[in-house]
Request: fold
Amino acid sequence: MQLEKIDIVKKETYFKKILSFKKYSNYFGQAFEPDDWYLETEHTFILAKPVDDFFRLFLSSDDREEVVALLKVMEGINVINLPSKREIVEWYQLMADAGYENIGIYERYFYTKFRPGGTLDQIKFAQSEQVEEIYDLLYGYEGFSPYTDYLPSKDELSQLIKEQFVIVNELSEQVVGTYLFQIDGKKCYLRAWIDKSPVDGFKLIFNMHTIMREKGITYAYLWVNSENKRVKSIHQFLGAKPDGLKDYTFIKR
Reply:
């Protein structure tokens, strides 16, 4: 079967269909957008979201054999994320049967208290003319992967900068570090942190604590690669705790 382009007029129909299958599902409320694709059968619905040169898939099915067969024949690079607080032994086998391999496990951490010190006027917020520089910094860092990390497109990065959700660390007028985040009410999502400064590589994380404290944030969360012990230890030292949720990334190339 071939993927079909989403007809945005029918998004409510798609939404009801994908929610109707609950036995095997990694769908958790993603919006249906004009650039999306889908595959639909009597027992399965697969939402395919284009990201650069691959699709991120959100599926729902009540037929294991059918969903395995469909995933096997889908062309190109396809990525599936499975967030869970439980062991996913059955999913591991399903993914293996469909030709997918696990390439990463991320753990969710949260903050409810923030470090004292610093003021907002000491923080350097990114400017619109720095989009290219920040984009290159993010995508040029070998520690990030477009498959396991939700890195922004240039358009999304531009919007984040306009909303003052990007801060930077500069050295000799060059961006050497950046922290991307999003605030929704009293919650803050810490999206991505990278800092190559040889002088003050922890400056941005302390700046983030200042921002969250000054803006009255009561809960902040972030995802950390399970194998990145250094970053986990930094956040743990600053008061972050794991909430037990893990995100498993599978890929078929």
